[in-house]
Amino acid sequence: MRAIHLLTCTTLALAAAGAQADQSYTFDTGAQGVTVTDGGSATWQAGGYLSIADVSDADMLLHLPAAALGDWSSYLGGSFSFDARNLNNESPDWAPFGELTLIGSSGSVVLDVVAANQPPADGSWHSYAVALDTATWGGNLAAVLANVTDVTLKVEFHAGVTEVVGIDNIAVTAVPEPQSAWMMAAGLAALCAGASALSGKRQGLVRRSRQG
What we know:
Elements: H1 2-16, E1 23-25, E2 35-38, E3 40-45, E4 49-54, E5 60-63, E6 79-86, E7 99-104, E8 107-112, E9 125-131, H2 134-137, H3 141-145, E10 148-154, E11 164-173, H4 178-211
Antiparallel strand pairs: 1-11, 2-5, 3-4, 4-11, 5-10, 6-9, 6-11, 7-8, 7-10
Helix pairs in contact: 1-4
C-alpha cells in the first residue's frame, strides 16, 4: 500500500512539473540560435542584444531556432514579447514591423503585433507583447500551435535599405507559468513525503502494539 502511495505522489508531482517551459532569448552570451534571413544581417553585441542591419530591399525576418519549435500547445493563452530599439534613428515608416508569423503543419497564422511608427527614433528600448489566444489570432491558432515548424518576426521598420534595429528579450510564455508549476510540484512532493513518513510511523506503532 505504501508503494502505491509513493507512486501516486511521484506521478502527481511530475504532472504538476510538466508544464512547458518558457522560452527566453536575452542574448547575454550570444545569438542563442536565433537567425535573420532575407534582407537583414545580424550581429551579436556584447551589450547583450542583436544588432540587425538592413542589407537589401527584402524584409528582414528573424527566426526562432529550430530546436525551440514543435508542440506549442502549452503556450495557448500565454504570450509572445520582445524589445526593440531604433539604433540609427531612421524614420520608422514601414508598417509591417512587428509582423509575427506562426507556421505549423496544419497551416499558419499572421498578426502585426506592433502599432505603426515603431520603434521610434528616440534611442530607447521599447517593449512589445501579444497574447497567444484565439480571441486575438482566430480559431486556427490552437491547431497551428500543436506542431509549430517556424516562427518569424518581421523587423524591417524603414522603407529603404538603411535602418539598423536592435532586438532583445524575446520571450514565449506559457500558462501556467513553469515557476508556479514547479512550486506546485515541490509542494506536492513535500506533502507526499510527510504523508509517507506519517504512514510509516503509524505502521510501526501498529506492529509494536501487536507485538505487545
